[in-house]
Amino acid sequence: MTAPDSGATPASPAAWEPKVLAFCCNYCAYAAADLAGARRMQYPPNVRLLHVPCTGKVELEHILEAFEKGIDGVLVAGCLEGGCHFLEGNLRAKRRVQRVREILDEIGVGGQRLLMVNLSAAMAPTFVERVREIVETVRKLGPNPLTTVKPEGAKSE
Amino acid sequence: MIVASPKSVTEVKEIIAAHRKVLFVGCGTCVTVCLAGGEREVGIMAYAVRMARKLEGRPIEIEQVTIERQCENEFIKDLAEAVDRNEAILSFGCGAGVQAIAERFPKKPVYAALNTQFLGILEEQGVWTEKCQACGDCMLADFGGICPVTRCAKQLLNGPCGGSTPEHCEIDNDMPCAWQLIFKRLKEIGQEDRLKKIRPPKDWRGSSHGGTRKIVRNDHRI
């Protein structure tokens, strides 16, 4: 799987807009996003949806690769706890997300850039609300620090 | 199997701080099974170290390869070309694997990415427990298949001690008393009589107390 290339060289800070990748479970979040669209509900265009069969399919490497490629934030959207189509995929995803947050904190990217949410296919308003939440969180945090790091040898101002 | 646990990203980053091009070598045997040093774990650590180094303004190039067994030259020799391309090697094998690679490539720095912990088994997904200390003189036949050398905190051969509760070890309430387990097991298999035998102090020379061990089997030598 390849994360969308957000472009490692961001535009000027004033023009910067957060780019968020949302791993959306087929049985809930993806359907909720579809419902939000059908209802003409507005949510920030900063989010790219990535359709997955279950959040249990989302591995640590997938999230880490997205951040390495320069994404500013990641949302993992799975079914309500107890409601996973595959019984416990979302519970596994929850533990993996927690582990990735720890890694992101440890290396300095920041675990707050990663959020997991649980919702059902009927919860389009919740999906919209959560997307807004992660986009606003990331907007406050600023760009992924990996995209703003100065090249080696560059003099600091 | 040999059970190991990964070092933290921070520690690994410090260990290889002086290098700009490093070969991460996973091992496909024990440490893959205990989810510490297989292909996936190598990949995850590589992501983390690459990002951390980039943020420090000192990017690192990481090449990843996982071989079937790091403790055998037959598999290690295939690394030669990759080793030549890199400044240093970070081994995700157990202590034996790290040293085997270091012996094979004496001119390259070889570092360990894992903490080798013990000989143990998978108790449940994500949980491993120690079962053997490789003491070199197995006494399991006398103890119903439960090792007091490993599983009794005091390594008593004539237990239990006075501190055990009926079920648990006095040093940790979550740890079962090995002697309680031995007694139950021997009773179940009708061998309680084995407990009447007083065992003399164990000869520890066959363990690491006698220096590094070596086994030579002439019948298998070529």
How would you describe this protein?
The complex is a heterodimer of chains A (157) and B (222). Chain A is an alpha/beta fold and 157 residues long. Chain A has one domain (18-148): Lumazine/riboflavin synthase (Rossmann fold), CATH 3.40.50. Chain A contains 5 helices and 4 strands, in the order E-H-E-H-E-H-E-H-H. A 4-stranded parallel sheet of chain A has the order 2-1-3-4, with helices on both faces. In chain A, helix 3 links the parallel strand 3 and strand 4. Chain A is globular. Chain B has 222 residues and is an alpha/beta fold. Chain B has 2 domains: 2-118, Response regulator (Rossmann fold); 135-209, no CATH class. In chain B, 28% of the residues lie in helices and 23% in strands. Chain B is built from 8 helices and 9 strands. Chain B has helices at residues 9-15, 30-33, 39-55, 73-76, 80-85, 95-104, 148-151, 178-188; strands spanning 2-6, 21-27, 61-67, 88-91, 110-112, 114-124, 127-132, 168-169, 172-176. Chain B has a 4-stranded parallel sheet, sandwiched between helices. A 3-stranded antiparallel sheet of chain B has the order 1-6-7. In chain B, helix 1 crosses helix 3 (39-55). The longest helix of chain B has 17 residues, at 39-55. Chain B is elongated and about 65 Å long. Chain B starts with a strand and ends in a 34-residue tail after the last helix. The model of chain B has no long low-confidence stretch (mean pLDDT 95). The A-B interface holds A 59-61, 64-65, 67-68, 103, 106-109, 145-146, 149-152 and B 8-10, 40, 43-44, 47-48, 50-52, 54-55, 57-59.
